[in-house]
Amino acid sequence: LGTLRRRDYQVERPLLNQKQLEELGRWSSVASIPDTYPCVLRCSHARARALLLQYLPVLAWLPRYPVRDWLLGDLLSGLSVAIMQLPQGLAYALLAGLPPVFGLYSSFYPVFIYFLFGTSRHISVGTFAVMSVMVGSVTESLAPDEDFLQDLNSTVNETARDAARVQLASALSVLVGLFQVGLGLVHFGFVVTYLSEPLVRGYTTAASVQVFISQLKYVFGLQLSSRSGPLSIIYTLLEVCWKLPQSVVGTMVTALVAGVVLVVMKLLNDKLQRHLPLPIPRELLTLIGATGISYGVGLKHRFGVDVVGDIPAGLIPPVAPNSQLFAKLVGNAFAIAVVGFAIAISLGKIFALRHGYRVDSNQELVALGLSNLVGGVFQCFPVSCSMSRSLVQESTGGNTQVAGAVSSLFILIIIVKLGELFQDLPKAVLAAAIIVNLKGMLMQFTDICSLWKANRMDLLIWLVTFVATILLNLDLGLAAAVAFSLLLVVFRTQLPHYSILGQVPDTDIYRDVAEYSEAREVPGVKVFRSSATVYFANAELYSDTLKQKVRLGVPRVRMVREGGGALPVKESARQHKVKVSETGSQRYPGRQGEGSRVTRGLAVTSGVEVTGDMGQGILLVIGGWGSWWFCESGETCFLPTAPVVTQLEAGHFFDASITKQHLFASVHDAVVFALQHPRSGPVSPVSVS
């Protein structure tokens, strides 16, 4: 590699304040406003075409589709995904508390809609465990078994119960779609930034635990009470343990055998993947084998094994949602909309980065929303994308959304002709398939060890999210997790890093003297840096730390409030000959240092009057507020950014006593100015807001 050569550069320039810098760079106060939201009233052929291609991207990429290069890969990929969609659709419908056939509907309609409107080439839209269990918590809470007991024998009227739950799920899907489309049209794709990775992983891990516990009744063949709300999963687990002596042996054996077969076939897939053109369809083969054995042996009648039951052939007509249910579903719908989009966009961006294309987050919101909206009209429940199917779609040669369209067509054939063949499929086999597929999400428990070493604040978010979701259920748990995450952001601003900066020898660079042993403080100037933005919540802490770390001698400190509020910034500054500024946020590491007397900095909502002498000039570097420097003469110099200067000029801040000559281009310029203008006498009280 050779040795790195030292490259020196030397720049000679005069000391620059803001006024001189503007003259040198010919700065203009007329800022250009980016045209982020084009005028929707502007109408032209080009504008209409651009909008059409933006919201219907299939018209942009499909005409350029390289048939010879990509069609075969998309066909094989679509077939592979469809083979997974079939058993997962049937199984995840049980998670949603619905008859299995509605999982097939949810694997067809939304997938085809996403083919038309989606921008990710590799994600597999359809049923997903986390989404299904969120839907199941809604359907089971609003339509519990207890509401459909028959008077004669106290058995549940499953037909009426299922009809009510399907109506709830379809209305929920429509409402989720409306939320997602609305957020996408107003460009609110950034809303998922409030769901950090530790929060999402902690939430999905807790959801996987809930999925696991919810499937135990199918594994042991138990009849459990429907529960919802806080601690419902705990009560369900306790009831399972209490009723274990009532387990159906035939059901337990069926689930155990199916689980072992699925695990063994997965191990074979992993071992032989280099030698196989396509992975072994372990779930499909298990379902076919289990259905055949169940039909031939008569598992339902001889051993009491619960089976899927009637699967009607053909499609059902669209049904308008019951709008009267929206008021009951709005909170859950918003939570499902956000979680579903967060999962889809995170996977979409991973694949886009890997294959070198761009995913439009706002269009993804629209595409996913339309998938749920149209799906809800056709009796589907809310969907997102599956990581396992997406990985299969990519690894088997999928190149575009055509693979999704192909998989939806295969599902259509199954719905129309082949679905009724799975009527004797044991539900225990579907439960086993769900539990085996939870391995990836349950492995996220290892995040605890990695986050303990990397970032314990993120570990705290993970743990709080997990515990809140387990105890409060999926909807309240998500709200509590987001609230805690935001509060933690606020809390972090209360504990910023403070440091004293020194000059690196023979440079104009200033670094923390605690971290850089060769950095030396400039005699007569103290540079104090805070990593946090100063605002009302941390102003008092900042002020106290500043006095403590710089050893501020203050005979008298009092709050300045007029009429219940702070002095206006401009008037307060002019009264005491001090300038104030706000700049773009900066992030610094830091540590406290020592110093001499200095004035006190404060935030917007209150002022502080400090009486005392300043023994040195002080340069304050404050993340988010910029830099102030209190020179020996008692005047203040600070380092603004261009938007701040524009705001100050627009507000007529500058006058004869406060000019741009107190603004500097860099820390070094301010330090040099401080050294050239020593204090000649005591200063008057100073207030900074």
List its salient traits:
single chain; 689 residues; alpha+beta; 6-stranded mixed beta sheet; 4-stranded antiparallel beta sheet; 26 helices; 52% helix; elongated; secondary active sulfate transmembrane transporter activity; transmembrane; Solute carrier family 26 member 6
Characterization of this structure:
This protein has 689 residues and is of the alpha+beta class. It is 52% helix and 8% strand. The protein contains 26 helices and twelve strands. The chain has helices at 18-25, 45-55, 58-61, 67-95, 101-105, 109-117, 129-142, 158-185, 197-214, 216-220, 232-242, 249-272, 282-297, 299-303, 326-355, 361-377, 387-395, 402-418, 427-437, 439-442, 447-454, 456-494, 539-549, 569-575, 642-650, 667-676; strands at residues 124-126, 384-386, 498-503, 510-512, 525-530, 556-562, 565-566, 607-611, 617-622, 626-630, 636-639, 686-687. The strands form three sheets. A six-stranded mixed sheet has the order 4-3-5-9-10-11. β9 (617-622) and β10 (626-630) form a beta hairpin. α4 (67-95) crosses α18 (402-418), α6 (109-117) runs antiparallel to α18 and α21 (447-454) crosses α22 (456-494). It is elongated and about 100 Å long. It starts with 17 loop residues before the first helix and ends with a strand. Mean pLDDT is 78; it is low at 553-617, 622-636 and 681-689.
